[in-house]
Each structure stands twice: as structure tokens, then as C-alpha cells.
Design brief:
Elements (H helix, E strand, L loop, with lengths): L7 H10 L4 E3 L12 E3 H10 L9 E5 L2 E3 L8 E9 L2 E2 L9 E6 L4 E2 L2 E2 L4 E2 L3 E2 L4 E2 L3 E2 L4 E2 L3 E2 L4 E3 L8 E2 L4 E2 L3 E2 L4 E3 L2 E2 L4 E2 L3 E2 L4 E11 L4 E2 L3 E2 L4 E7 L4 E7 L4 E11 L4 E7 L6 E5 L4 E7 L8 E2 L4 E6 L4 H4 L12 H13 L3 H16 L4 H14 L6 H20 L3 E2 L10 H9 L11 E2 L3 H30 L1
Parallel strand pairs: 1-3, 2-4, 3-5, 4-6, 5-7, 7-10, 7-11, 8-12, 9-13, 10-14, 11-15, 12-16, 13-17, 14-18, 15-19, 16-20, 17-21, 18-22, 19-23, 20-24, 21-24, 22-25, 23-26, 24-27, 26-28, 27-29, 28-30, 29-31, 30-32, 31-33, 32-34
Antiparallel strand pairs: 35-36
């Protein structure tokens, strides 16, 4: 391409390329005017075969241009820095399969971006861009960072993802603070060596998936403070060894799952200080070292089957934690109760641990046949399934008082008056209540009438009490 064929604006860009000088066209009238118009074919010619000057680093640095035509660099090799900031593109750039040194499109307006399988040796900056069509970056390899801070992305086709980052590899951070996306974002199988930053982002795809990030691999943290979503976030099978920070978030997907983090491996999950989650929370089969979960943020449905965690913070009474175990589609999951019990025992709160175990037995009772439920009610009423042993003493003392008072009022008849010991109503009642110990009273005296019935009641009650005590103590000892 000859320089004589170029417009004045294109000539400025052409001459500046060899030395990497920035060309700022923002002061030349309206952006859509001819003074600021640069053809895409001119930019392509510069990047592929532009003039060079010995001792200088060639670079394309243009601000405020209106780029007409299609900037097609598909499968091209571009070793110079490319910065096209505050530009307006008439057509979506085509960069599929290209090898670029560095690409900066910040504050530009684009109808889309086609850059699947692109390799960028530096960073890709789309900061504050307005992109009115889909962005294809699937399979891209970015040696630096990917910057989408304060970008606005939307697409005309609701069935098509607006941002495709599936299988992308980023060797630094993926920064998307303040990102506003209207549609689905795909991050399936992506690898981010640093952190994924979605703080203050607004992601909207009502009734659908707003973020698909299955098998996402993040080297550090997933930061989502003050994140606002309308749609489903899917992190199934992801690996995030650092912190998943969802403090002060607003997650909403009515009638469906709002957040799915099943089968994930996460260092810390922070979900607190925000609005209650609207929709289901799914943490099934996840492995989390520290679960920082505020009870007031939990939705009506929480799926915790086979969830494993080491620490549960902040420390809350068992009465505040137990309701979340009852929201898993009404299914009884003993593992969830054991996890909560272990978390309380690690911090030395034995009382809370016993309450969780008692709640577990009561919940399990509802799954038994009628005779099992009846026996369970007896164990609960007498000794609290072994977690409230003082109840047995209360029952024993109460029955002892009733029996002693009754038999003191009406002594039973001695079977052999010459051989019978002196009658003692207290020890006679103890003989009836305690099935193993004998004080010689029961075998020497025989009550009659209503007192005989009372003696039978005390004997049966004593056996039931003894059996439930043994069952409860055995269960308690086996857990130690």
C-alpha cells in the first residue's frame, strides 16, 4: 500500500507506526467524521508489513479513530504492540488463530470480537469497552492478564453466549471488576493462573445461566464482592485453592439454582453480609477447607449431600445452623449432621455438637416404621438418645417419689410374716424400678388391688428406662 493512497488521518498513523508514536485523533471533530476515519485494511497492512526504523520499536498506537471495514488478522503473526483505544469499529475484528504481542482496545466500541484460539504473548485489555455483540475468546492463550474491567457486553441472540472464554488459558489475573454482561458467560474448562476478579460486576440472564464455569481452574482466588447476578452460576467441578469471596453479593434465580458449586475443591468459601440467596444453593460433594457462611443468607433450598468442610465460621449456636440441614429437598443426610458435629467439636463446643446429634436422631426417627418411631420417642423422652443423661435421673426420682408415697400410705401384704424384713417404701419402690439390683423387698411383699397395678407399671417402666439408658449410653460411647 502506497502512502499517497491514504487519507490525512491514515498518513499520520502510517508515519507514527515505525517509531511507536501515539496518534490521538480525538481532537479532530466528531468520531464518525472523515477526519477521524481509518480503514481497517490500512491497519492490517501496517501490522503485517509496516515500515520499520532501525533502533526503534514499531507499534500501532491510535486513539479516537473510526475504523471502517473488517480488521482481519486471522492466523496472522503480529509481533508489534497494538493499541486502539477510544476507537469505534464498524465491524467486529477477526483475530481467530492469530499470534499477537499485545492488544489494547480499552474504551472502544465494537459490534463484537472474534478471537477464538488467539495467542497473545502479553495482555489483552478490553477495559471499559462497549461491545454490542458476542465476544469469542474460546481456546485463547494469554501470557499476561485479561482485563474486562467496567466493560459492557451484550448480544442480540439470547441463546448464544455473549462472552465465550471456554478453554481459555490466562497466565495472570482475569480482571472483570464492574463488568456488565447481558447474557451467558462461558468459562468452562478455563485456566486462570492468578485470580478471577468479578467484584462489583452485574451479570444478567434471567431464567438462564449467567456464568457457566464448570471445571474452572483458578490458581488463587475468585473474588466476587458486591457481585449482582440474575441467573444461574455454575462452578461444578471447579478447583479454587484460595478464596471464593461472595460477600455482599446479590444472587438471584427464582425457581432454579442460583449458585451451584458441587464437586468443587475450594480453600475458603465466603457467603455473608449480603442479601438472602434467591433460588437454590447447591454444595453437594464439594470439599471446602473453611466454609464462612451466614445463616441469614441461605435460601429455602440448600443441597449439602456429601459436602465436606473442616471449619465452619462464624461461630453460631446450633439452633441457627440446624435449619440448613433440613432444606435439602426434605431428604435425610446423616453425613451433613456428622460434618456439623465435627465442626463444633473442633472449636470445643460440645453442647452444640450434642444438640446436632440429637437433631440427627430425631430426623432419622421420621424415616422409620411406626414401631421404630415409637421406640425412638421413648429414647428421646427418657434420655434424649443418650445426649441428655440427666433425664434418666429425673425420671427415676419422680417415679421413686410416686411409688414411695403410694406404698407408704398402704403397705403391701407380707408373703411370709415371720421371715419378711421390715417394710421400707423407698427401697421397695427401688426394687420394682431397678431390674438388676435387689434389696430383698420385692420378693417379700405382695401388693393388692390398685397397688398391684402400680407395681406392674413401675416394673415395666423400670425395664424401659434401663433399656433406653443402656442404648443411649452405648451410642454415646461408640461416638467417642
Amino acid at each position: 500500500m502506497e502512502i499517497d493512497d491514504l487519507t490525512p488521518a491514515e498518513q499520520r498513523v502510517w508515519r507514527a507506526f515505525a517509531t511507536g508514536t501515539t496518534v490521538d485523533l480525538r481532537d479532530l471533530g466528531e468520531q464518525d467524521g472523515p477526519e477521524r476515519t481509518v480503514r481497517a485494511v490500512v491497519l492490517r497492512a501496517l501490522l503485517l508489513n509496516g515500515p520499520r526504523v532501525a533502533g526503534e520499536v514499531a507499534a500501532l498506537k491510535v486513539l479516537g479513530a473510526r475504523v471502517t471495514g473488517v480488521l482481519d488478522l486471522s492466523y496472522a503473526v503480529v509481533d508489534s504492540v497494538t493499541r486502539l483505544g477510544f476507537c469505534r469499529f464498524e465491524e467486529a475484528p477477526r483475530l481467530a488463530g492469530a499470534q499477537l504481542g499485545y492488544l489494547n482496545l480499552r474504551d472502544s466500541v465494537l459490534p463484537g470480537l472474534k478471537a477464538a484460539r488467539t495467542r497473545i504473548d502479553g495482555s489483552l485489555r478490553l477495559t471499559s469497552c462497549r461491545i454490542d455483540g458476542p465476544v469469542y475468546l474460546g481456546g485463547a492463550q494469554i501470557s499476561g492478564g485479561l482485563f474486562l474491567d467496567d466493560a459492557e457486553i451484550g448480544g442480540a441472540d439470547p441463546a448464544e453466549p455473549v462472552l465465550q472464554l471456554n478453554q481459555v488459558t490466562v497466565d495472570d489475573d482475569l480482571c472483570a471488576r464492574g463488568l456488565r454482561a447481558r447474557g451467558r458467560i462461558r468459562l468452562d474448562g478455563a485456566t486462570v493462573a492468578g485470580s478471577l476478579d468479578l467484584q462489583d460486576a452485574e451479570l444478567s440472564n434471567p431464567g438462564g445461566h449467567v456464568l457457566d464455569a464448570e471445571s474452572l481452574d483458578v490458581g488463587a482466588n475468585l473474588l466476587g464482592r458486591r457481585l449482582r447476578t440474575q441467573g444461574r452460576i455454575d462452578l461444578r467441578g471447579s478447583r479454587i485453592p484460595g478464596r471464593v469471596d461472595l460477600m455482599q453479593t446479590t444472587l438471584s434465580n427464582p425457581g432454579d439454582t442460583a449458585l451451584r458449586a458441587s464437586s468443587c475443591v475450594i480453600g475458603e468459601l465466603w457467603l455473608r453480609a449480603g442479601d438472602p440467596v434467591v433460588g437454590r444453593l447447591n454444595l453437594r460433594r464439594a470439599e471446602i477447607n473453611q466454609l464462612h457462611l451466614a445463616p441469614e443468607m441461605l435460601p429455602d433450598q440448600v443441597r449439602l449431600l456429601d459436602l465436606t468442610y473442616t471449619f465452619l465460621t462464624p461461630h453460631e449456636p446450633a439452633e441457627r445452623r440446624l435449619p440448613m440441614l433440613e432444606r435439602d429437598d426434605d431428604a435425610f443426610d446423616p453425613h451433613a449432621y456428622e460434618q456439623l458435629t465435627a465442626a463444633y467439636r473442633r472449636v470445643g463446643d460440645d453442647r452444640a455438637a450434642r444438640l446436632v446429634q440429637l437433631a440427627k436422631q430425631r430426623r432419622h426417627r421420621g424415616t422409620l416404621p411406626w414401631y421404630g418411631r415409637l421406640w425412638g420417642h421413648l429414647q428421646d423422652a427418657t434420655v434424649g438418645y443418650g445426649f441428655r443423661p440427666l433425664r434418666a435421673a429425673v425420671w427415676l426420682l419422680s417415679l421413686l417419689a410416686v411409688g414411695s408415697a403410694a406404698f407408704a400410705h398402704q403397705h403391701p401384704r407380707a408373703l411370709k410374716a415371720s421371715e419378711a424384713p421390715e417394710f421400707d417404701p423407698v427401697f421397695y419402690t427401688l426394687d420394682l424400678l431397678l431390674p438388676v439390683i435387689s434389696f430383698g423387698q420385692e420378693s417379700a411383699f405382695a401388693p393388692s388391688g390398685g397397688y398391684r397395678t402400680l407395681s406392674y407399671v413401675l416394673i415395666v417402666t423400670g425395664w424401659i428406662l434401663a433399656t433406653t439408658v443402656v442404648a443411649g449410653v452405648t451410642r454415646s460411647v461408640s461416638r467417642q
